[in-house]
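Dissemination and training. As part of the outreach component of the grant, students in the summer workshop were shown how a complex can be specified as a set of sequence lines and then modelled as a single object. The example used during the hands-on session is reproduced here so that future cohorts can follow it. Participants entered these lines:
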Amino acid sequence: MPAELRIEGVPAAALARRFGTPVFIYSRAAILARLERLRRAFSRLGTSICYALKANPNRAVCRVLSEAGLGAEVVSGGELVRALAAGFAPGSIVFSGVGKTADEMDLGLRRAVLTFNVESAEELGALERVARRRRRVAPFSVRLNPDVKARTHPHVTTGRAEEKFGVEAALVLELARRGHRSRWLDFKGLHCHIGSQIRELGPFKRAAEAVARMLRRLQAEGIPFSLVDMGGGLGVRYGAEPELDCAQLAETLEREFSPWPAARLLVEPGRYLVADAGSLLTRVLYRKQTSRRRFVIVDAAMNDLARPALYGAFHPIAPARPRSGPSHRVDVVGPICESGDFLARQRLLAPVEPGDILVVGMAGAYGFAMSSQYNSRPRAAEVLMAGGHARLVRRRETVADIVFAER
Ligand SMILES: *Cc1c(COP(=O)(O)O)cnc(C)c1O
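and obtained this result:
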Protein backbone atom coordinates (compact mmCIF):
# COMPACT_ATOMS: atom_id res chain seq x y z
CA MET A 1 0.00 0.00 0.00
CA PRO A 2 1.42 3.43 -0.93
CA ALA A 3 2.42 5.74 1.90
CA GLU A 4 0.47 8.70 3.18
CA LEU A 5 0.94 11.74 0.90
CA ARG A 6 2.96 14.63 2.25
CA ILE A 7 3.74 18.12 0.99
CA GLU A 8 7.11 19.46 2.16
CA GLY A 9 7.00 16.80 4.85
CA VAL A 10 3.54 17.70 6.17
CA PRO A 11 0.72 15.15 5.71
CA ALA A 12 -1.77 16.42 3.12
CA ALA A 13 -4.65 15.26 5.34
CA ALA A 14 -3.39 17.48 8.18
CA LEU A 15 -3.23 20.48 5.82
CA ALA A 16 -6.80 19.79 4.69
CA ARG A 17 -7.94 19.64 8.30
CA ARG A 18 -6.19 22.91 9.18
CA PHE A 19 -7.19 25.00 6.15
CA GLY A 20 -10.40 23.29 5.00
CA THR A 21 -11.18 22.10 1.48
CA PRO A 22 -10.95 22.72 -1.38
CA VAL A 23 -7.53 24.29 -0.92
CA PHE A 24 -4.51 24.81 -3.18
CA ILE A 25 -1.18 24.03 -1.52
CA TYR A 26 2.01 25.32 -3.18
CA SER A 27 5.56 24.33 -2.35
CA ARG A 28 8.26 27.00 -2.44
CA ALA A 29 10.97 24.34 -2.65
CA ALA A 30 9.31 22.78 -5.69
CA ILE A 31 9.09 26.16 -7.47
CA LEU A 32 12.75 26.88 -6.77
CA ALA A 33 13.79 23.40 -7.95
CA ARG A 34 12.10 24.04 -11.31
CA LEU A 35 13.74 27.44 -11.57
CA GLU A 36 17.12 25.92 -10.80
CA ARG A 37 16.67 23.36 -13.56
CA LEU A 38 15.78 26.09 -16.06
CA ARG A 39 18.63 28.33 -14.98
CA ARG A 40 21.14 25.53 -15.31
CA ALA A 41 19.90 24.84 -18.84
CA PHE A 42 20.22 28.46 -19.90
CA SER A 43 23.26 29.39 -17.82
CA ARG A 44 25.63 29.90 -20.76
CA LEU A 45 23.35 32.41 -22.37
CA GLY A 46 22.83 35.22 -19.91
CA THR A 47 19.16 34.67 -20.66
CA SER A 48 16.45 36.58 -18.82
CA ILE A 49 13.62 34.47 -17.45
CA CYS A 50 10.36 36.39 -17.23
CA TYR A 51 7.70 34.53 -15.23
CA ALA A 52 4.33 34.56 -17.02
CA LEU A 53 2.03 35.68 -14.21
CA LYS A 54 -1.13 34.30 -15.73
CA ALA A 55 -0.14 30.74 -14.75
CA ASN A 56 -0.38 31.64 -11.06
CA PRO A 57 -0.59 35.30 -10.06
CA ASN A 58 -0.83 34.78 -6.29
CA ARG A 59 1.39 37.40 -4.70
CA ALA A 60 3.23 34.99 -2.41
CA VAL A 61 3.99 32.67 -5.33
CA CYS A 62 5.16 35.64 -7.41
CA ARG A 63 7.31 36.80 -4.53
CA VAL A 64 9.20 33.51 -4.50
CA LEU A 65 10.12 34.20 -8.12
CA SER A 66 10.78 37.95 -7.85
CA GLU A 67 13.05 37.32 -4.87
CA ALA A 68 14.89 34.74 -6.95
CA GLY A 69 15.68 37.54 -9.40
CA LEU A 70 13.25 36.77 -12.23
CA GLY A 71 11.53 39.25 -14.50
CA ALA A 72 7.82 39.01 -15.29
CA GLU A 73 5.58 38.70 -18.31
CA VAL A 74 2.14 40.30 -18.00
CA VAL A 75 -0.86 40.35 -20.31
CA SER A 76 -3.09 42.98 -18.66
CA GLY A 77 -2.96 46.10 -16.53
CA GLY A 78 -4.14 44.00 -13.61
CA GLU A 79 -1.23 41.62 -13.98
CA LEU A 80 1.16 44.56 -14.25
CA VAL A 81 -0.13 45.95 -10.93
CA ARG A 82 0.19 42.52 -9.32
CA ALA A 83 3.71 42.02 -10.71
CA LEU A 84 4.85 45.35 -9.28
CA ALA A 85 3.21 44.59 -5.93
CA ALA A 86 5.05 41.27 -5.84
CA GLY A 87 8.37 43.03 -6.22
CA PHE A 88 9.30 42.45 -9.86
CA ALA A 89 11.49 45.33 -11.11
CA PRO A 90 9.56 47.42 -13.68
CA GLY A 91 12.52 47.24 -16.06
CA SER A 92 12.30 43.45 -16.04
CA ILE A 93 8.62 43.28 -17.01
CA VAL A 94 7.46 42.60 -20.56
CA PHE A 95 3.88 43.58 -21.43
CA SER A 96 2.19 41.22 -23.93
CA GLY A 97 -1.40 40.77 -25.07
CA VAL A 98 -3.31 41.13 -28.31
CA GLY A 99 -5.75 43.73 -26.95
CA LYS A 100 -3.99 46.17 -24.64
CA THR A 101 -6.11 49.27 -24.07
CA ALA A 102 -4.70 52.81 -24.14
CA ASP A 103 -5.11 52.97 -20.35
CA GLU A 104 -3.09 49.78 -19.93
CA MET A 105 -0.37 51.10 -22.23
CA ASP A 106 -0.29 54.35 -20.29
CA LEU A 107 0.18 52.44 -17.04
CA GLY A 108 2.98 50.39 -18.56
CA LEU A 109 4.67 53.51 -19.89
CA ARG A 110 4.44 55.36 -16.58
CA ARG A 111 5.82 52.36 -14.72
CA ALA A 112 8.59 52.03 -17.33
CA VAL A 113 8.27 48.40 -18.36
CA LEU A 114 11.10 46.81 -20.36
CA THR A 115 9.05 46.46 -23.54
CA PHE A 116 5.54 46.24 -24.98
CA ASN A 117 5.06 43.20 -27.20
CA VAL A 118 2.97 44.66 -30.02
CA GLU A 119 0.63 42.44 -32.03
CA SER A 120 -0.90 44.66 -34.74
CA ALA A 121 -0.32 47.83 -36.78
CA GLU A 122 -3.28 49.53 -35.10
CA GLU A 123 -1.96 48.65 -31.66
CA LEU A 124 1.40 50.20 -32.56
CA GLY A 125 -0.45 53.37 -33.64
CA ALA A 126 -2.25 53.46 -30.29
CA LEU A 127 1.03 52.96 -28.41
CA GLU A 128 2.60 55.84 -30.34
CA ARG A 129 -0.32 58.14 -29.47
CA VAL A 130 -0.07 57.22 -25.77
CA ALA A 131 3.69 57.86 -25.85
CA ARG A 132 3.29 61.24 -27.55
CA ARG A 133 0.64 62.30 -25.04
CA ARG A 134 2.90 61.28 -22.12
CA ARG A 135 5.97 62.70 -23.87
CA ARG A 136 7.75 59.49 -23.10
CA VAL A 137 9.33 57.13 -25.65
CA ALA A 138 7.63 53.71 -25.69
CA PRO A 139 9.90 50.64 -26.03
CA PHE A 140 8.30 47.91 -28.10
CA SER A 141 8.97 44.55 -29.69
CA VAL A 142 6.96 43.04 -32.50
CA ARG A 143 5.35 39.67 -31.90
CA LEU A 144 6.00 37.51 -34.92
CA ASN A 145 3.43 34.88 -35.84
CA PRO A 146 5.77 32.26 -37.31
CA ASP A 147 2.94 30.09 -38.70
CA VAL A 148 4.21 27.10 -36.77
CA LYS A 149 1.92 24.30 -35.65
CA ALA A 150 2.56 22.93 -32.17
CA ARG A 151 1.05 19.63 -31.07
CA THR A 152 -0.94 20.70 -28.04
CA HIS A 153 -4.59 21.39 -27.25
CA PRO A 154 -6.18 23.56 -30.02
CA HIS A 155 -7.26 26.16 -27.44
CA VAL A 156 -3.66 26.83 -26.45
CA THR A 157 -1.83 26.98 -29.77
CA THR A 158 -1.01 30.55 -30.73
CA GLY A 159 1.61 30.34 -33.47
CA ARG A 160 -0.38 29.60 -36.62
CA ALA A 161 -1.49 32.18 -39.18
CA GLU A 162 -5.16 31.29 -38.44
CA GLU A 163 -4.79 32.53 -34.90
CA LYS A 164 -5.27 36.04 -33.56
CA PHE A 165 -1.75 36.30 -32.17
CA GLY A 166 1.25 38.19 -33.52
CA VAL A 167 1.82 39.62 -36.97
CA GLU A 168 2.98 37.90 -40.13
CA ALA A 169 6.56 38.22 -41.34
CA ALA A 170 5.90 40.84 -44.03
CA LEU A 171 4.29 43.21 -41.53
CA VAL A 172 6.98 42.71 -38.88
CA LEU A 173 9.50 44.61 -41.00
CA GLU A 174 7.06 47.40 -41.69
CA LEU A 175 6.33 47.87 -37.97
CA ALA A 176 10.02 47.72 -37.09
CA ARG A 177 10.78 50.42 -39.70
CA ARG A 178 7.98 52.55 -38.36
CA GLY A 179 9.31 52.21 -34.82
CA HIS A 180 12.82 52.95 -36.00
CA ARG A 181 11.68 56.23 -37.62
CA SER A 182 9.25 57.41 -34.92
CA ARG A 183 10.43 59.83 -32.30
CA TRP A 184 8.00 58.33 -29.75
CA LEU A 185 8.76 54.67 -30.35
CA ASP A 186 11.88 52.64 -29.62
CA PHE A 187 12.09 49.34 -31.48
CA LYS A 188 13.65 46.72 -29.16
CA GLY A 189 13.36 43.47 -31.08
CA LEU A 190 11.17 40.47 -31.70
CA HIS A 191 8.78 38.44 -29.63
CA CYS A 192 7.33 35.01 -30.39
CA HIS A 193 5.09 32.70 -28.34
CA ILE A 194 3.66 29.69 -30.15
CA GLY A 195 1.41 28.16 -27.51
CA SER A 196 1.29 26.39 -24.18
CA GLN A 197 2.13 22.89 -22.90
CA ILE A 198 4.44 22.13 -25.86
CA ARG A 199 6.52 19.05 -25.12
CA GLU A 200 8.47 18.68 -28.36
CA LEU A 201 11.48 20.62 -29.48
CA GLY A 202 10.45 20.82 -33.16
CA PRO A 203 7.93 23.69 -32.96
CA PHE A 204 10.30 25.79 -30.82
CA LYS A 205 13.08 25.14 -33.34
CA ARG A 206 10.93 26.15 -36.30
CA ALA A 207 9.77 29.28 -34.47
CA ALA A 208 13.37 30.19 -33.61
CA GLU A 209 14.34 29.73 -37.27
CA ALA A 210 11.55 32.07 -38.33
CA VAL A 211 12.68 34.65 -35.77
CA ALA A 212 16.31 34.30 -36.93
CA ARG A 213 15.22 34.88 -40.54
CA MET A 214 13.54 38.12 -39.45
CA LEU A 215 16.61 39.19 -37.49
CA ARG A 216 18.71 38.77 -40.64
CA ARG A 217 16.33 41.00 -42.55
CA LEU A 218 16.38 43.63 -39.82
CA GLN A 219 20.15 43.52 -39.88
CA ALA A 220 20.20 43.88 -43.67
CA GLU A 221 18.07 47.01 -43.34
CA GLY A 222 20.29 48.44 -40.64
CA ILE A 223 17.54 48.36 -37.98
CA PRO A 224 19.19 47.68 -34.61
CA PHE A 225 17.63 45.36 -32.03
CA SER A 226 18.54 44.29 -28.49
CA LEU A 227 15.85 41.78 -27.43
CA VAL A 228 14.87 38.35 -28.72
CA ASP A 229 11.93 37.04 -26.70
CA MET A 230 10.98 33.42 -27.42
CA GLY A 231 7.93 33.34 -25.12
CA GLY A 232 6.83 30.50 -22.89
CA GLY A 233 4.90 27.32 -23.52
CA LEU A 234 7.43 24.86 -22.08
CA GLY A 235 5.50 21.67 -21.53
CA VAL A 236 5.42 19.66 -18.30
CA ARG A 237 4.50 16.12 -17.38
CA TYR A 238 0.95 15.62 -16.09
CA GLY A 239 0.70 11.89 -16.66
CA ALA A 240 2.96 9.43 -18.43
CA GLU A 241 4.04 11.72 -21.29
CA PRO A 242 7.63 13.01 -21.23
CA GLU A 243 8.16 16.70 -20.56
CA LEU A 244 10.06 19.18 -22.70
CA ASP A 245 13.81 18.87 -22.28
CA CYS A 246 14.71 22.44 -21.34
CA ALA A 247 18.44 21.79 -21.81
CA GLN A 248 17.77 20.85 -25.43
CA LEU A 249 15.59 23.92 -25.83
CA ALA A 250 18.34 26.16 -24.48
CA GLU A 251 20.87 24.54 -26.81
CA THR A 252 18.61 25.01 -29.83
CA LEU A 253 17.92 28.66 -29.07
CA GLU A 254 21.57 29.36 -28.41
CA ARG A 255 22.57 27.82 -31.72
CA GLU A 256 19.90 29.70 -33.65
CA PHE A 257 20.72 33.09 -32.14
CA SER A 258 24.51 32.71 -31.91
CA PRO A 259 25.06 35.25 -34.75
CA TRP A 260 23.74 37.98 -32.41
CA PRO A 261 25.54 37.54 -29.08
CA ALA A 262 24.75 41.11 -28.00
CA ALA A 263 20.98 40.61 -28.21
CA ARG A 264 19.43 39.54 -24.92
CA LEU A 265 17.44 36.32 -25.06
CA LEU A 266 14.22 36.23 -23.03
CA VAL A 267 12.00 33.29 -22.19
CA GLU A 268 8.59 33.56 -20.53
CA PRO A 269 7.71 30.28 -18.82
CA GLY A 270 4.61 30.14 -16.66
CA ARG A 271 3.43 26.56 -16.35
CA TYR A 272 6.96 25.12 -16.32
CA LEU A 273 7.83 26.93 -13.08
CA VAL A 274 4.71 26.36 -11.01
CA ALA A 275 2.61 23.45 -12.32
CA ASP A 276 4.15 20.66 -10.28
CA ALA A 277 4.53 22.89 -7.20
CA GLY A 278 0.78 22.94 -6.58
CA SER A 279 -1.78 20.43 -5.35
CA LEU A 280 -5.50 20.81 -4.92
CA LEU A 281 -6.84 19.08 -1.82
CA THR A 282 -10.48 18.06 -1.95
CA ARG A 283 -12.75 16.05 0.33
CA VAL A 284 -14.86 13.11 -0.73
CA LEU A 285 -18.54 13.93 -0.15
CA TYR A 286 -20.33 10.87 -1.50
CA ARG A 287 -19.92 7.78 -3.60
CA LYS A 288 -22.56 6.59 -5.95
CA GLN A 289 -22.95 3.90 -8.49
CA THR A 290 -25.24 3.79 -11.50
CA SER A 291 -25.76 0.82 -13.76
CA ARG A 292 -22.92 2.19 -15.94
CA ARG A 293 -20.47 4.01 -13.72
CA ARG A 294 -19.02 4.59 -10.31
CA PHE A 295 -18.79 8.21 -9.19
CA VAL A 296 -16.79 9.82 -6.43
CA ILE A 297 -18.36 13.19 -5.66
CA VAL A 298 -15.90 15.65 -4.14
CA ASP A 299 -16.09 19.23 -2.85
CA ALA A 300 -13.84 20.69 -5.60
CA ALA A 301 -15.32 21.34 -9.01
CA MET A 302 -14.67 22.79 -12.44
CA ASN A 303 -14.90 26.27 -10.94
CA ASP A 304 -11.82 25.41 -8.83
CA LEU A 305 -9.86 23.49 -11.48
CA ALA A 306 -11.15 24.12 -14.98
CA ARG A 307 -8.49 22.27 -16.97
CA PRO A 308 -10.17 18.83 -17.10
CA ALA A 309 -13.50 20.35 -18.22
CA LEU A 310 -11.87 22.88 -20.56
CA TYR A 311 -9.17 20.78 -22.21
CA GLY A 312 -9.96 17.24 -21.15
CA ALA A 313 -6.70 17.59 -19.22
CA PHE A 314 -5.29 14.81 -17.07
CA HIS A 315 -4.34 15.48 -13.43
CA PRO A 316 -2.97 12.76 -11.15
CA ILE A 317 -5.33 12.03 -8.26
CA ALA A 318 -4.63 9.92 -5.19
CA PRO A 319 -6.05 9.54 -1.66
CA ALA A 320 -4.01 11.41 0.96
CA ARG A 321 -4.25 8.33 3.21
CA PRO A 322 -4.54 5.15 1.18
CA ARG A 323 -6.92 2.46 2.41
CA SER A 324 -6.44 -1.16 1.65
CA GLY A 325 -8.77 -2.85 -0.76
CA PRO A 326 -9.38 -3.11 -4.48
CA SER A 327 -9.10 -0.08 -6.78
CA HIS A 328 -12.04 0.83 -9.01
CA ARG A 329 -12.45 2.75 -12.19
CA VAL A 330 -14.35 5.91 -11.19
CA ASP A 331 -15.34 9.36 -12.38
CA VAL A 332 -14.21 11.98 -9.88
CA VAL A 333 -16.79 14.76 -10.16
CA GLY A 334 -17.70 18.01 -8.42
CA PRO A 335 -21.03 19.44 -7.24
CA ILE A 336 -21.58 21.77 -10.25
CA CYS A 337 -24.68 21.31 -12.35
CA GLU A 338 -22.92 20.34 -15.59
CA SER A 339 -21.87 16.95 -16.86
CA GLY A 340 -18.62 18.60 -17.92
CA ASP A 341 -17.82 19.06 -14.23
CA PHE A 342 -15.23 16.37 -13.65
CA LEU A 343 -11.69 16.18 -12.32
CA ALA A 344 -11.06 12.72 -13.77
CA ARG A 345 -12.94 10.20 -15.88
CA GLN A 346 -12.64 6.43 -15.76
CA ARG A 347 -9.70 6.67 -13.41
CA LEU A 348 -8.39 3.73 -11.44
CA LEU A 349 -8.63 4.94 -7.85
CA ALA A 350 -7.83 3.22 -4.56
CA PRO A 351 -10.89 2.80 -2.31
CA VAL A 352 -12.21 5.96 -0.65
CA GLU A 353 -14.93 6.80 1.84
CA PRO A 354 -16.81 10.02 2.56
CA GLY A 355 -14.55 12.44 4.44
CA ASP A 356 -11.35 11.14 2.82
CA ILE A 357 -8.99 13.68 1.26
CA LEU A 358 -7.92 13.40 -2.37
CA VAL A 359 -4.78 15.08 -3.63
CA VAL A 360 -5.07 16.42 -7.17
CA GLY A 361 -1.52 16.91 -8.41
CA MET A 362 0.06 19.28 -10.94
CA ALA A 363 -2.43 21.99 -10.01
CA GLY A 364 -0.03 24.90 -9.50
CA ALA A 365 -0.47 26.39 -12.98
CA TYR A 366 -3.78 27.50 -14.50
CA GLY A 367 -5.54 26.11 -11.42
CA PHE A 368 -6.64 28.85 -9.06
CA ALA A 369 -5.73 31.34 -11.83
CA MET A 370 -8.62 30.07 -13.97
CA SER A 371 -11.02 29.46 -11.11
CA SER A 372 -14.39 31.18 -10.96
CA GLN A 373 -17.39 31.60 -8.73
CA TYR A 374 -19.68 29.65 -11.07
CA ASN A 375 -22.67 28.22 -9.22
CA SER A 376 -21.97 30.92 -6.59
CA ARG A 377 -19.20 28.82 -5.13
CA PRO A 378 -16.66 30.82 -3.12
CA ARG A 379 -13.17 30.32 -4.48
CA ALA A 380 -10.73 28.05 -2.66
CA ALA A 381 -8.05 29.09 -0.19
CA GLU A 382 -4.36 29.11 -1.16
CA VAL A 383 -1.48 28.04 1.07
CA LEU A 384 2.26 28.32 0.51
CA MET A 385 4.61 25.83 2.15
CA ALA A 386 8.11 27.12 2.86
CA GLY A 387 10.60 25.07 4.83
CA GLY A 388 7.82 22.75 6.00
CA HIS A 389 5.87 25.69 7.39
CA ALA A 390 2.38 26.34 5.95
CA ARG A 391 1.11 29.89 5.47
CA LEU A 392 -2.35 30.93 4.27
CA VAL A 393 -1.64 33.26 1.32
CA ARG A 394 -5.22 33.78 0.19
CA ARG A 395 -8.13 33.16 2.49
CA ARG A 396 -11.12 31.17 1.34
CA GLU A 397 -13.79 33.39 -0.17
CA THR A 398 -17.19 33.72 1.45
CA VAL A 399 -20.59 34.17 -0.16
CA ALA A 400 -20.35 37.83 0.92
CA ASP A 401 -17.25 38.14 -1.31
CA ILE A 402 -19.28 36.85 -4.23
CA VAL A 403 -22.08 39.39 -3.93
CA PHE A 404 -20.21 42.42 -2.58
CA ALA A 405 -20.19 44.40 -5.83
CA GLU A 406 -23.86 43.86 -6.62
CA ARG A 407 -26.24 46.82 -6.39
C1 LIG B 1 0.60 32.40 -21.63
C2 LIG B 1 1.83 33.05 -22.11
C3 LIG B 1 3.07 32.64 -21.61
C4 LIG B 1 3.24 31.50 -20.64
O1 LIG B 1 2.81 30.30 -21.17
P1 LIG B 1 3.16 28.91 -20.39
O2 LIG B 1 2.60 27.88 -21.28
O3 LIG B 1 2.49 28.97 -19.08
O4 LIG B 1 4.63 28.86 -20.28
C5 LIG B 1 4.19 33.30 -22.05
N1 LIG B 1 4.10 34.31 -22.95
C6 LIG B 1 2.93 34.72 -23.46
C7 LIG B 1 2.90 35.83 -24.44
C8 LIG B 1 1.76 34.11 -23.06
O5 LIG B 1 0.59 34.51 -23.57
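The CA atoms of residues 149 and 357 lie 40 Å apart. Students were then asked to discuss how this feature might be tested experimentally.
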